[in-house]
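Moderator note: this is an archived Q&A kept for reference. The question asked for a predicted structure of one protein chain; the sequence and the answer are reproduced below.
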Amino acid sequence: MGTGITPREHLDEVAEPLIPAKRRVRKPPVLIEEMLGDTYQGIVLSFDGATKTSPRRGSCGCILWQLPGWKVLEARVFILDDVSVNDAEYNGLLKGVQMALDREAENLVVVGDSRIVIQQVKGLINCHQPNLQKHLAECEVQKEKFRTLHLMHVKREYNQAADYLTWKTLSFGKSWIVQDPEELLHLTEETDDPFEYQAERWRCIRVHQDQDIYLSEIKSFQKGDIGRVSPRRRRKISKVADLFALDARDVLYRLARLTRGHPRDFVDEPRLVIPDSLRSDMLHYAHKDFQGGHQGITLTYEKLRSEFYWPGMYADVGHYVKECVDCASGKGRPPNEGPSPGNIEPRRRFEVVSMDIVTHIPDSERVNIILLLFQDAFSGFVMYKPMTSPTAQDVAEVYEEIVFRRFGASSLVRHYQDPRFMSEVFTRF
């Protein structure tokens, strides 16, 4: 039998069978990137869901496509009340599947950008939340009505049609059926130029900044157009105008400011100023989105402040994370310490005695510095003894003198776990 030296890159493979597993190891789900062939013929369902916290309302959209050609067969969008993001995603899936059943479709391909919903329905990950378990059970019933049902997870950029309808409906606040020819054409048209897509994004950001009163005043001050600003507001804006700058696209940025603790913290990286109308969307993407991962307050805040700015960002992040239903319901049940023993009800005098020590009293002629109190829980009778030495031995002797010699031994002695009451001397007594 030959011997040799194991290469470094194979050390883990050699040591794995030699080290016993301390607990059951669960393999992660295998994620496969699926694609439809160019010659595929059939119906494809794309769905999406979105929510806003103020007011707590959501929406879901579902589109049925006929392949090849990507012809829109039917598109519907629904308003939902008091739902989470995953609830909205599940509703979009269920309503879209029902649309396919109404058309008597036997084979269906479902695509969506919700990793949680897709993998739960496919059985790759478990579902622990009661509200999602109800939706999952409905999906299992609907799956049995098809001959074949394939679910595919896609990136958000490939699900823009459903995402567009969802957020548009959330802004309008009412459910609707897409029948306008221009809207149907907008769903099917492709944007070949990525620079055109970026320019549209920057245009939307600029419009939202102009609609924000505070930011529009700062932008007017930066441009020198201060005629419509009152002198009082002008003096106030001039104190903070040096912290902002406009780029060539007329978009407002926040410049980094040196601090004593972090002298070079984001010195060369200006941050985009987020208007009030877009802050809820930024909080959603930084916390609830797939890339957010439902992180805590600190990580969500650090992720936002590295590229964006708005006044009171940390307070808004803290309020948003604390109101996240998924984070609150995903921590499990609180530990059960057992039932409460209830109130102690003595049946006779001095069966239960309470003890306490009163300190910081004025010195007496006998130099007594503390007062040891005893109270009968049955009658409320109180006895006390002035003391000069608060040691455990002295406390035990006073208990013997005041309580034990007069009324006998007590079944229970209540105290607040003072070291003099918990000592070995008093316990053995």
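Archived answer notes: The first helix runs from residue 11 to 15.
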